[in-house]
Automatic annotation (TrEMBL):
This is Cryptochrome DASH. FAD binds at residues 232, 245-249, 285-292, 383-385. SUPFAM superfamilies: Cryptochrome/photolyase FAD-binding domain, Cryptochrome/photolyase, N-terminal domain. Its cofactor is FAD; (6R)-5,10-methylene-5,6,7,8-tetrahydrofolate. Transmembrane segments: none annotated. Binds 1 FAD per subunit.
Length: 432
């Protein structure tokens, strides 16, 4: 058994169902949980947008603070680092003479690069980096195909996996954690991260607050208090209010709750209130999350290329500043697009229906490089998840996993179908 280990937390800020945490506890006499605010996550990207905007950063700060509280209840706490992970983690490894760093495994390109650089620096200190796959519903090792053979069409992926794979049971949270005394946490402020505070507009579907405590509260509300899960399939294309869909995505993105934990709760719910299309549909949506994550494992950098995973490209690569500005600020010639874009800008959230429409509009009507749209979503969305965001944008731009090729939304028809009485447009287009 090792004397001291470090756990490097990233997008796995939870004590329930956290294999990395349990493995570290089992293999070490004492552990030091750390979270590093990576400087590169707060830079401006090549597309001219911030990598992390203020809504998402605020949600992250809430989540880190809540995670520290939950760790302290178990006898530990969170050490906060800020800078380059490879530099900061190396310092803490030397300070505590740690022999191993435990972390969740990454699949997307930049995150993988960071993981490699950290591993190289730790190797120089004779310290090992061990990673665990903790982000998906189905474990990577349980897939009925090798990574290179994962079907590129979701339906084929889903059918095979549902038939041939099992979902593992959740890990219970530890009863206690043995750590040296960890000083009170000093969180950076938004200003320290180069951002300004933005209040979520009062018209928002909900006031999002980060952290595992809030995630479990939301799950309990959506499942057991309101039984909204039973009608999820019928209401999920809604646009106004908190309960037309689960809204779990923001907490899932930071790992404040795991997909497997949600699955286990769905199963409890089904025992109590019965299974139907809606209870299945929530699991179906979690499968989409898995699919994009495994796609990134398979195709690596391709999802960040203009041509995506296809060789022939359809979209224009143009950048017309004025059109981009109009789209971002919700002053295009489509009131349905404008309402959705204003909701995003002022709350950090947009419905699934809205996202598909504004992405289709961006790629097809404005004929712009889809990656600019994806980069703006990266900055703005509270629930930004690298695989789902870039995977969905590539899909809608016709360079991703859509078997039908170029998907084109008739925006007017969509507005009439999903905002019949104009309630959503009236809400967001009114003069304040």
């Amino acid at each position: 058994m090792m004397k001291t280990s470090i756990i490097w937390f990233k997008t796995d800020l939870r004590v329930e169902d956290n294999e990395t945490l349990l493995k570290a506890i089992a293999q070490s006499e004492q552990i030091i949980p750390v979270y590093c605010f990576d400087d590169s996550h707060f830079e401006t990207t090549a597309y001219g947008f911030k990598k992390t905007g203020s809504f998402r950063a605020q949600f992250l700060l809430d989540s880190v603070e809540d995670f520290d509280k939950n760790l302290r209840k178990l006898g530990s706490g969170l050490v906060i680092l800020k800078g380059k992970p490879e530099v900061e983690l190396a310092k803490i490894v030397q300070e505590y003479k740690a022999q191993k760093v435990f972390a969740k495994r990454e699949v997307a390109f930049e995150e993988k690069q960071t993981e490699k650089v950290v591993q190289a620096e730790l190797f120089k200190l004779r310290c090992e980096l061990e990673t665990f796959s903790t982000s998906t519903l189905y474990h990577a090792e349980d897939l009925p195909f090798s990574v290179k053979d994962i079907p590129d069409v979701f339906t084929n992926f889903r059918k095979k996996i549902e038939k041939e794979s099992k979902i593992r049971s959740v890990f219970r949270k530890p009863e206690q954690i043995n750590s040296p005394e960890i000083p009170q946490m000093k969180l950076p402020t938004l200003e320290d991260l180069g951002l300004e505070f933005s209040k979520i507009d009062s018209r928002a579907v909900m006031q999002f607050k980060g952290g595992e405590t809030e995630a479990l509260k939301r799950l309990n509300h959506y499942f057991f208090e309101t039984k909204s899960l039973s009608t999820y399939k019928e209401t999920r294309n809604g646009m106004i209010g908190a309960d037309y869909s689960s809204k779990f995505s923001a907490w899932l993105a930071l790992g404040c709750v795991s997909p497997r934990f949600i699955y286990a709760e769905v199963k409890k719910y089904e025992k109590r209130y019965g299974a139907n299309d809606s209870t299945y549909w929530l699991i179906f949506e979690l499968l989409w999350r898995d699919f994009f994550r495994f796609m990134f494992k398979k195709h690596q950098t391709k999802f960040f290329l203009y041509s995506g995973i296809k060789s022939e490209t359809i979209n224009s690569k143009s950048l017309r500043e004025k059109l981009l500005w109009q789209w971002v600020n919700g002053v295009t010639n489509s009131d349905f697009i404008n309402a959705n874009m204003r909701e995003l800008k002022q709350t950090g959230f947009m419905s699934n229906r809205g996202r598909q429409n504004v992405a289709s509009y961006f790629c097809n009507e404005l004929n712009m490089d889809w990656r600019l749209g994806a980069a703006y979503f990266e900055e703005t969305l509270i629930d930004y998840d690298v695989c789902s965001n870039w995977g969905n944008w590539a899909y809608l731009a016709g360079v991703g996993n859509d078997p039908r090729g170029h998907r084109y939304f008739n925006i007017e028809k969509q507005a009439n179908d999903y905002d019949k009485n104009r309630a959503f447009r009236d809400l967001w287009l009114q003069k304040k």
